[in-house]
Amino acid sequence: MARRRLIVEIPALGAIDGTRGGIGRQLADALRNAIANGELKAGERLPSTRALAVSLGFSRGTVAEAYEQLIAEGCLAARAGASTRVASGPHEPHVAGLKLSGKAPGRVPALPASVSRYAAMAEGLAPLPMVPFSVAVPEGDVAMDDHWRRLGNRVRASQAAVPSGYADPQGLLALRVAIADYLRRARAVRASPENIVITEGTQQGLYLAAKVLLAPGSVALAEDPAYPGLISVLEDGGILVHRIPVDSQGLDVAAATDDFPDAGVAFVTPSHQYPMGMPLSMPRRLALVEWARRHGGWIVEDDYDSELRYAGQPFPALQGLAGDRVVYLGTFSKVMAPSLRLGYIVAPECLAKAFAGARALIGRGSPSAEQHVIAAYMREGYFEAHIRRIRGIYAERRQVLIDALRTELPRLRIEPADQGMHVVVRLPDGVDDVAVASAARNAGIALRALSPMCSGDLRLSGLMLGFGGFTAGQLKEAVQRLRRVLSALAPG
Ligand SMILES: Cc1ncc(COP(=O)(O)O)c(C=O)c1O
């Protein structure tokens, strides 16, 4: 007996274009849409694969493949010996409470408070454009040298650079060995490869230090002014931050430790206070270590650019005085390039494993190939040669900037400092540094204002001027522009 030919009435199937490839995928899409639209209802029987194939003029295998895909997705249900049916589930319009194909937007979820907080951070932590006086833009003469490029090409192409499994989240051992060796010689840091954790830079080191050392609601000490990326990390962790003023000797340790004996961690920039520039004096270093020992506290040392000292040897790191109390954070951002996203933590022995675990939690570790390149660059002696070379270039650029400021803007006080990649100038009383930075942006120069780095109690008005990535000509020209901006905003 001749079988009756089934005419299948599913309008969504009209969207299938037989002249295009991927018929099976198109059929699955069309059926999925029909289910979402309510054209096909939960429990409704579908035609057999043979009937649908005949009706549409496709092969039976193509239809079976589409059914199998939808069964796997949970849109269709099949039982042995029975027809395939539409599965019941959240795609049913009455269950979901939404008509998926309609234009109705549905209920907009209430945004958690963290959304606006993180959005504000995206703005606050955004890098400045690559024009003077942006900090940390190693280009031209100060960019990484040919050795870096050659080693990079060779090492990245090797099998070892991209191992087939996950690499050690603590970081490449060869790099940790090279860093321990370098830090011992150059920074008087007591480090062993086992105590080093490779990070994506000091920003991540600060984040990890807050995670490992501080519970929400605990108390930390930070300098005033301070690096805004640190304050954001602490506030984000629900940590109570006491800001301690700095003077010509750095953080006022006595004020900190007398007033806040309950603090668990002090975050400091002892070699080169950020942003003001003074080092932490030896008596203050000893007092800070004494506080840590007496109160069972930790010190987090952010040593972001200490290699770049111009008037003598870099100051030894605080870590060398108390390796059991100090979590030391170093970075390749300043002497190499911030885009490398590589830095390191030297943790006291009892904390090293915890830091490695926290590092694994937030990303499994840093890219392996770049770690291999830096390790080779350090091992073969190029890294320290590079630092010696850029130190000379930066010293000249810094002097050009200071001379230009003295000539063009003698009213501005230059903060005394002899290292790093930026100079801080103080603005005359009553001049709004944020307004100056914003007007400067319109004039094609990039500046960071000092006041947003201060607590509410301390409102210093000043500007941070980076010089590292710019030639003498660019710096002089930019100082002239700054003079014009300032005379428009603060004549006299
Ligand atoms: C004081 C200070 N700490 C930490 C950082 C973050 O550096 P990194 O690029 O290593 O994350 C910066 C960057 O400017 C900084 O100035």
From TrEMBL:
InterPro entries (alphabetical): Aminotransferase_I/II_large, HTH_trans_reg/aminotransferase, PyrdxlP-dep_Trfase, PyrdxlP-dep_Trfase_major, Tscrpt_reg_HTH_GntR, WH-like_DNA-bd_sf, WH_DNA-bd_sf
- Keyword set, alphabetical order: Aminotransferase, DNA-binding, Pyridoxal phosphate, Transcription, Transcription regulation, Transferase
Could you give a GO molecular-function term held by this entry?
DNA-binding transcription factor activity
Task: Tell me the Pfam families matching this sequence.
Answer: Aminotran_1_2, GntR
Domain HTH gntR-type, chain residue ranges per copy: 21-89
Taxonomically, the superkingdom here is Bacteria
PANTHER family hit by this protein: HTH-TYPE TRANSCRIPTIONAL REGULATORY PROTEIN GABR
The family assignment reads: In the C-terminal section; belongs to the class-I pyridoxal-phosphate-dependent aminotransferase family.
Protein name (database record): Aminotransferase class I/II-fold pyridoxal phosphate-dependent enzyme
Species of origin reads Pseudoduganella dura
Q: What is the lineage of its organism?
A: Bacteria, Pseudomonadati, Pseudomonadota, Betaproteobacteria, Burkholderiales
